[in-house]
Structures are given as C-alpha cells and as structure tokens.
Amino acid sequence: MSGRFYDVIIVGAGPAGSYLAYKLASLGYDVAVFEEKNTSGLNVCCTGIISTECFQSLDLGTDTILTKLSSARFFSPSGRCLRLQTEKIQAYVVNRLLLDKAIASKAQSQGAQYFFSSPVIDIIPGKDSIQAETLCSGVKDIFSARAVVLANGFRPELPRKLGLGKINNFLVGAQVEVEAKNVDEFEIYFGQEVAPGAFAWLVPTSTNKAYVGLLATSQAKLYLQKFLNNLFSQGRITSREMEIRQKAIPLGTLAHSYGDRVLVIGDAAGQVKPTTGGGIYFGHFGAQIAADVLDEALSSDNLTAGQLSRYQKRWKAKMGKELSRGYWARWAYTKLSDRQIEGIFNMFDFNGMTEALLNSGNFSFDWHSRLILTVLRRSSAYPLLKIKHLFFRGVSS
Ligand SMILES: Cc1cc2nc3c(=O)[nH]c(=O)nc-3n(C[C@H](O)[C@H](O)[C@H](O)COP(=O)(O)OP(=O)(O)OC[C@H]3O[C@@H](n4cnc5c(N)ncnc54)[C@H](O)[C@@H]3O)c2cc1C
Predict the structure, then answer these.
(1) Does residue 14 line the site of ligand 1, with CB under 6 A?
(2) CATH-assigned architecture of domain 2-46+96-167+252-319
(3) Diameter of the chain measured on Cα atoms
C-alpha cells in the first residue's frame, strides 16, 4: 500500500519538527509530520526552561508557563551558595506537553497533516522523490515527498543509515517531578560527586512541586537517586519513590545535516547548548533556517545536496562558534576536581566578579561563549588557568 505524496515529510513532532511544519505549511507547502507517540509532548524528559526571547519567538500562550525565573542559587561542592538576581525575568519554565501540543496545533491550523503512533522505520532516497517507510498504527506504509526532514531527537539510526554521520559524544539527563518544600528559586548544584561532568537542579513548577534533575557523563539515574535521597533526608522533598525519566543529550554536531532531499534539525543535528544541555531555542533556529532553505530549494525544484548545503552553512554561521566554544568549556569543566570548582566559587564570591559580569553586557541566557571568554580572559586564578589552557587548546584543535 502506498500513501500520499507531499512536498515535505517531517519525522518527529517535537518542538523543532512542529515549528518547521508550521513555517512550511504557512508558506503553502503540503507537509506531513510522522510521530511515533500517540500525541505530541507525551512523557518528555525536559525541564522546559527557555529564555524570554525564545518564548516570544515561539509565540506561545501564557498558559504554557509554569514559573518565571529572574534569580538562581548556585551551590558549590561544599554547599557554599552564590545567588544571582537580575531585574528582568530571564526565562520561563514551560510545560513541555503544552508547548509541544501548542506548536503542533499551530502547524495543523496551517494545514500540516499529523500522523501519530506512526514511527518512521526507514528513509529511501530516490532520484525524483524520497520515501518514508512507516508503521502507521502498526501497519506498514510508504509515503513519498520531495524532501524529508529528520527532527526525531537524538536517535542516531536514521542519520547514520543515510550516510550523514553519527554524534558519538553525549550527556545523560534524568529528572522527576516531586512534592517539595520551600523551593521558590532555581537551584543549581555543582560537584563531580553530585553530577559528574555537569550539574544538578531543583526548579519550582508550582506551589509545593519542583523538578529535580541532573545531567551527567554517565549513570545519571543513579546520581539522581543519590541526590533525591539527600534532599529527602534534609526534608526538602517529601517523597523519593518516583519514576525517573532519562534521555541522552548530544554533544557535538552531525558531520552532515543535509543530503540529497534530506535535512536534519534540532537534537538530531546536535543543535544543543553543550553548557546546559538546552536545545529548544537552538533547535528552533535550526527549524527557521531549514524553512528558508527548503523554501528556496522547493521553489527552484533543486533539492540536491549541493543546494541544501546552504542550510548547514547558515546554521553554523549563526551558532557554530557558540556550540564549539560551549563544547570545549564543558569538556574542560569535566577535568576539574571538586577543590578546583570550589576555587572558582571563591573567585566569583569575593572578587565582585559576578556583579561585574552581570553588568558587563556579556551576560545572556542563551549565548554563553562571550561570557566564557570574558571570564577566562579576566582571571588568573589557578582553577580558571587550568580551564583556560584546556579550553583554548580544544578550541584551536
Ligand atoms: C533532563 C533534561 C532536561 C532538559 N531541559 C531542557 C531545558 O530546560 N531547556 C531546553 O531548552 N532544553 C532542555 N533539554 C533538551 C530538550 O529536551 C531537547 O533539546 C529538545 O526536546 C529537542 O527538541 P527536538 O524537537 O529536536 O527533539 P525531541 O523533543 O526529542 O523530539 C523528537 C520527536 O521525534 C519522535 N521520534 C523519534 N524517532 C522517531 C521516528 N523514527 N519516527 C517518528 N517519530 C520519532 C519522538 O517521539 C519525539 O517526539 C533537556 C533535556 C533533558 C534530558
């Protein structure tokens, strides 16, 4: 049995895929989105923190907002606390189920057709079209299109099958929502014994509820369980028996995010901030750029890899440096001992560096590389000298 013919087939109804579907459908293209879950945003493992700029650009309703963030408390390995506050709200914690549903419903209102419970199991490129083999509610079917976009998150199989490469490096994120006491600010915990290579967090989601999560280079679930046990014994959370969700976060980018009649966007392409693991905004940029490039390619009926390579050039020009510097800064951080992390906290605490940075114009919720460069260039404290050395060696390699 053979399905319909579309201009573009999108694999995955996450924020990147659905935003692209919305843009292309608004331009009048015939778009189909295939999603393996039975609805958008179901059981997503994500904290949903996005900057106010990202929120505005996604044009979401305020009903998606759980909490507004204008301050954060950073905890060193020994428990020293550094509090940062800005006058303006910096970010929102949004409900991922509502966010995914809201973008999908905007795409549908522009005419994009959604197929839920429909995993794409293979992509078969041809000369005049490209085919997606799906299991629509368990029944095998083949749909054809002029182009296919992979927006299926960090799942290496399809890009690898298409010869686009594979992202080998990743972090693992784990999270639960818990009943909590006195969690009224974003709390971030550092230390190689708390969350090796990354950090842990508490984020208020409503009165008496919070997300507790962490990113780690491995065994995220195990470290999160340990973190939950500590919070429970301090009386900060009232239960520790919940189902922990986890998901891998790509570090580094796909060698080729384009091919003949194919593009790759979002987590699938590695469009994720390596410093925090946040991928909603950068995947959104990827989707915007993909929409522009596909519009040009579809209108000139030139969907060759040569034409579509413009996509990679443009998204790398926008965020390539940011991703590479973030990657090396995070890698250098994994090499620090807890004592050295403590040393960095001391430096921020006593040298007035925090205020100087907040007021320097280099602070941005989304773009971290300018801040990283400023901190590294300004400081001669030992732990930062070590990071500086590793960072600049990595960036220039
Ligand atoms: C613990 C944790 C916390 C995070 N917190 C934040 C945060 O606060 N802010 C932030 O910006 N980012 C955060 N992220 C990252 C964020 O979740 C991702 O970057 C974002 O979801 C990527 O969007 P996407 O559309 O590219 O992919 P996804 O959201 O992964 O969507 C991909 C979709 O494709 C579907 N799919 C997969 N394979 C197939 C297939 N073969 N056929 C059909 N459908 C398929 C999936 O079911 C899914 O719906 C976090 C990640 C983790 C793990």
Answers:
(1) yes
(2) 3-Layer(bba) Sandwich (3.50)
(3) 69
